[in-house]
């Protein structure tokens, strides 16, 4: 079986059965013994928490990301950036780049705007969950806030440099809920 698992107790028994010589065992005897041990499939991780409608939550997140990319929904991050820059961002290309706070030239990568939720209210509204559920998800580590420094480009021109942004990632939430 490819990627099979063996119980630790079986290996301990095998090591006890093989006669050691000065604290060493014969490699071929050990390999023959391992081949004869019972193999198991990969164990599934234990779910420590129960989430109702897990698949519905994941599909809601995927639909929201798709709708934002298709410009059917205007995300809150756009309204937030409009307030910061004082520019109407309708029909403009917006790019966020993660950067190091101290190094002006160090750009770590582009951030997908459709993957950003600014606050818990937005998450609760889109996923149709209550505040206690949201707080329970945060406590379980399913929803984690990110804090990064970004450069904001609008239509190819840098408008803000070294802006600290606190947000949640939809893809991380979907991944954590699916586990």
Which key terms come to mind for this protein?
179 residues; alpha+beta; 2 domains; five-stranded antiparallel β-sheet
Write a structural description:
- By secondary structure, this protein is of the alpha+beta class.
- Helices cover 41% and strands 20% of the residues.
- A hairpin with a 7-residue loop joins strand 1 and strand 2.
- The longest helix is centred in the middle third of the chain and has 16 residues.
- The model has no long low-confidence stretch (mean pLDDT 86).
Please describe the biggest sheet, giving its number of strands, its sense, and whether it closes into a barrel.
5 strands, antiparallel
Strand order of the largest sheet: 2-1-4-5-3
Class from secondary-structure proportions = alpha+beta
SS elements, strand count: 5
Uncertain regions spanning at least 5 consecutive residues? none
Question: What is the string of helix and strand elements?
Answer: HHHHEEEHHEEH
Shape: elongated
Rg from Cα: 25 Å
Strand % is 15-25%
Number of distinct helices:
7
Brief write-up:
Helix content is 41%, strand content 20%. With 179 residues, it is of the alpha+beta class. It has two domains: 1-43, no CATH class; 54-178, no CATH class.
Helices and strands, with pairings:
Elements: H1 8-17, H2 27-36, H3 54-69, H4 76-85, E1 94-99, E2 107-111, E3 116-117, H5 120-127, H6 131-140, E4 145-154, E5 157-169, H7 170-178
Antiparallel strand pairs: 1-2, 1-4, 3-5, 4-5
Helix pairs in contact: 3-7
